[in-house]
Amino acid sequence: MAETLPSEQRQPDPIANTQAAYDAIAPRYAATWFDDTAMEPTLDDFLRRLPERGAVLDAGCGPGRDVRAMLSRGVEAVGIDISEGMLHEAKARVRGATFRKMNLTGLLYPPGGFAGVWACASLQHLPQPKAEHALSEFARVLMPGGVLFVTVELGDGEQTDDYGRYRRLYSPAEFHKMVTGAGLVVMQEKRSSRDKSTLPNPRPKTWLEIVAKKSVLRDASCYDDSTCSCLLCPDNRFTLNREIGLLSSTSVIWGDDDLYLAPDLAPLTDGHLLLVATTHRSCFGACSRRVLDRLVEEQDNVRKLIRLAYGKETVFLEHGPAKPREAGSCIDHSHLHCIPGTIHVRDAVERLVGPGQPCTLHELERMYTTGQSYLYVEDTDRIGHAYPLQVAPTQYLRQVVASLLGGVAWMWQSSSKMAVTRECFKRTVAELLPIADSLYWSR
Questions:
Q1: What's the pLDDT score for residue 248?
Q2: How is the beta sheet containing 55-59 ordered, strand by strand?
Q3: pLDDT score of 240 more than 50
Q4: Which of 49, 120, 373, 435 has its Cβ near the most Cβ atoms within 10 Å?
Q5: φ, ψ dihedrals at 64, nearest 5°
Q6: pLDDT digits over 113-164, tens only?
């Protein structure tokens, strides 16, 4: 067994200390900075550079000042921070906005979902290796042509202020190299100086401000071929949300390079989610074994989420086309419907197509590779069943669920534009995001 060091000999954790410091000073910090407008011209310049579509991630949002400014300009934005105190201030001061507890080094979003990342005076609180990791995360979640704005304090070495906040200072050359090392192209560098501070005895600070851009060349690995344009692929997956007035990438519950979880665009009930592969494949049977392993893992996390939010178990459903538009598929991109409730979808499906066979998610691969389309149904007993078939009514599983729920509208193309469906979408986001953050933060 390793020897435990006495507390005075242990190495301090700069991130934990900084988090605790911001929790303690959050009210004072918010009172000092929330109404400060000095950054607004810089923010406006950043927003003008963004691609026309897309949302902004405020990475290290503090009390929500810049999220408020972006929303007031009609820009969709989400703020993330690790300080509970800061998030409390932000939620109290910017009502109705989305704020999440999230690490800069582990963004819970799929690749390419944001038009911009705004990181104002946040990276300096990370040791250099973690700051480099965070820059790579920023680049990962930016869409092609997306823009990063980042500021760090100029200087040399590491410091800790009177509140216990850690700071890593950089030379311009050093930080420029870190930004380009993350795969971004620097468009602008400038310096600014300010004396204002949360500390009782402020000192002059000189800041390096960098604007950088992600290459407009999209990653072909996200597609089966370079012309793919399905509605769940990176270039298109949040376009419909924006067109009908819903949150786009900021509605993602969680995600990574393999999968992401988001509300169905036209939820049939509160908590109706889609677990979607980030890479374009026609169904989960067409996905790699690694993605299927991740899918099983995330199923368990979805079950926990739904149980905590609604006190219900989860039904999982998939149309599995081996060829385009077979098995009632409407969008030929692997996505698993996750629906809270005790509805018996299997019984209803079997009345149309006959008995199925018990089947794990991994066994869908065998069906797909033999050219067999399928329906996959996993009721709350957690026993999956596959139903081999080529022909089924379009959106058949949505039709079945809608009928079992009392005849709600099932066709997503029209129901997504209905006020009742939009409200269901909004409730789902508001209910699940805080629980999702708690689940992931406790891992």
A1: 95
A2: 98-101, 77-81, 55-59, 114-119, 142-153, 205-214, 184-194
A3: yes
A4: 373
A5: 95, 10
A6: 999 999 999 999 999 999 999 999 999 999 999 999 999 999 999 999 989 9
Q: Which amino acid is at 391?
A: V
376 has a pLDDT exceeding 90: yes
Nearest-angstrom CA–CA distance, 178 and 316: 43
The reply to whether 174 and 245 lie within a common domain is: no
As to burial, measured by CB atoms within 10 angstroms (0-12 exposed, 13-18 middle, 19+ buried), residue 390 is: middle
DSSP 300: H
Q: CA-to-CA distance for 193 and 335, rounded, in angstroms?
A: 49
Q: Is residue 1 part of a domain?
A: no
Question: Please, are residues 320 and 389 in contact by the beta-carbon 8 Å criterion?
Answer: no
The residue from 163, 187, 214 where one domain ends is 214
Reading the block at residue 157, the tokens are 């070495």
Q: Report the amino acid identity of residue 395.
A: Q
Top pLDDT among 380 and 220 is at 380
Same domain, 403 and 298: yes
User: 149 and 250: one domain?
Assistant: no
Tracing tokens 């869409």 back to the chain, one arrives at 143
Q: The tokens 């990063």 sit on which residue?
A: 148
Q: What tokens does 418 get?
A: 């209905």
CA distance 223 to 234: 9
Could you tell me the two tokens for 408? Answer: 């709600």
Say whether pLDDT at 91 is over 90: yes
Query: Residue 5 domain-assigned?
Result: no
pTM of the model: 0.93
Tokens 């300080």 belong to which residue? 83
Both 316 and 227 in one domain: the answer is: yes
Asked whether residue 37 falls in the same domain as residue 93, the answer is: yes
pLDDT of 4 > 50? The answer is no
Query: How many residues does this entry show for the chain?
Result: 443
Q: Which residues contact 246 (CB under 8 A, 6 or more apart)?
A: 265, 422, 425, 426
Number of domains in the chain: 2
Mean pLDDT (the chain, rounded): 92
Q: Determine the Cα–Cα distance for residues 190 and 210; give it in Å rounded to an integer.
A: 7
> Residue 165's domain spans which residues?
11-214
Residue with token string 């006959």: 354
